[in-house]
Amino acid sequence: MGNDLEYLKGCMRPEQYEKLAALNNSKLNEFIADSVQLCTPDDVYLCDGSKNEYDTIMAGMVNEGLATDLKARENCFHFRSDPSDVARVEGRTYIACENESDAGPTNNWIYPDKLKGTMRDLYSGCMKGRTLYVIPFSMGPIGSPISKIGFEITDSGYVVCNMHIMTRVGDKVLEALGQGDFVPCLHSVGKPLAEGESDNGMWPCAPVEKKYISHFTEEQKIWSFGSGYGGNALLGKKCLALRIASVMAKKEGWMAEHMLILRLTNPEGKKFHIAAAFPSACGKTNLAMLQSTVEGWKVECVGDDIAWMKMDDNGQLRAINPESGFFGVAPGTNSKTNPMAVKSCEKNSIFTNCVVTDDSDVWWEDGDGECKHGIDWKGREWTPESGEKGAHPNARFTAPAAQCPNVCPDWEDPAGVPIDIFIFGGRRSELVPLVTEAMDWDHGVYMGATAASEKTAAALDSGVAIRRDPFAMLPFCAYHMADYWQHWFDMGDKLGENAPKIFYVNWFQKNEKGKFIWPGFGENSRVLKWMCERVDGKAGAYDTAIGKMPKKEDLDLNGIDLTDEEMDKILSVDTEGWKKELPIVREFFETMGDKLPDRMVAQVDRLEQRLKS
Length: 613
Ligand code: PEP
Ligand code: NA
Ligand code: MN
Known about the structure:
The protein has 18 helices and 32 strands. With 613 residues, the chain is an alpha+beta fold. The chain folds into 3 domains: 2-65 and 91-253, 3-Layer(aba) Sandwich (Phosphoenolpyruvate Carboxykinase, domain 1); 256-324 and 410-573, Alpha-Beta Complex (Phosphoenolpyruvate Carboxykinase, domain 3); 326-401, Phosphoenolpyruvate Carboxykinase, domain 2 (Beta Complex). The model has no long low-confidence stretch (mean pLDDT 96). Phosphoenolpyruvate (PEP) binds next to α9.
């Protein structure tokens, strides 16, 4: 252990080494020393989280041609990835634990020692020609009892700068850590540089068969190799705050969920808090930053992707957003669909795989304004006549949450916000009505477990047209899915009458012409208002086979431009269609094997009975 410090003394800047020596956290020293020895970088750098550090690293990447300084936006930069490195790679994402049955049927399982052997070979010498950055980060406000500290070691400056925005980074984290525990996260783009070699204006990565996004769920550590893309490389986000945290939460009796968090305030000033889970590319970020179209109802954003929730001393479930930024999908984001996101990324933001316009701004499909000519995400000249999209469909903006004009003033309160409502949903062009309220907690858990959506661009390999995505956690639950469902039942038992009400929504039904029926975006506030009034016992609902539903007159539709037939279509239950879902759901449940909770089977049995009667 003393040896680790001694070793680090020989390869670090003295003032940075002194910080580690003063801290004397042996697990940290060992993690850094081992990583340096294994990856053999040219330089080792401990991040302090300062603006100067961000500016210096960013300027270095601009100099190397890896980033474009966008003259039209204050302190904003654009990056292009390797064309193969544009999204999460679920087929190369691994859960390593002793027993395969603990990972369950929805994860790629590998035996930990085997995976370590393979990855050690890959890591060996992988940072040659590069700097090894050590990033101390906190998920959640620094020092909050619900927060978790991680250390990401990476050879990517892009990762360092994105982590500055997405998490709390630097000296403050070292102070909060002391001798305490943390989640070690090792990341490399997997492309050592030969003498004199450079990156050629694109971020480097390894070929797909060498990419590994690995989670050691028992040791609670993360090893990522071969990709520079957000969800694969910013290890605080999906890897720590969802996958590793899902395992911690199960063990410790809390919840780590793929959910946005928002506050809705009614005209009387009463506050409601909603946590909502949707699969990727269903407008989670748009809903999180919604502009209410209902007179007197105000929406404020707490988070757009991840919720950590614990019961407080009064038995109330409280949620924090463990992140400090948004890593949002750019295409489709404009002043109509999400004005708050547009404002959030006006300055101090990073853009990835967009079009860089001739006036040194970024542009993307279905964004604001036009682009007549620019350089596309692959670095080629682009015009609207090019016949290909200028921005990649999964192009991203990374923006500080504090820049969101309607962020909750207390979004960083370590105590979190009390959750009144859970929403599940997906993108379904048929069958699933605008909104349904669960009859009780167990029925709501069934709704979450059977959530399904049509395809997304956020994963490279998500496959089939309609994908079951339970709780929007299919790619993120790092243990047996059926145990996770049981955890939801258990949480309901613990919460009792404090349990949030559960709803299911679908904004995406289409008419015969293939056009969306419900206008969506800001108008979704009408549905949220009904939910809050249900919590307050003020709005009507009637029982259907699939849950409680509003009649037209129960919703505030003032000024909504839909015909009665259209409203009837999205508020009706297609009994025959739902019957056809039953065998699909049963088949899906069977894939869970013995661990499938009886309470879940009871739900599908009851639904079948209700549909028959
Ligand atoms: C990601 O891929 O890094 C990410 C944030 O994914 P998603 O938008 O699917 O949540
Ligand atoms: Na700029
Ligand atoms: Mn997400």
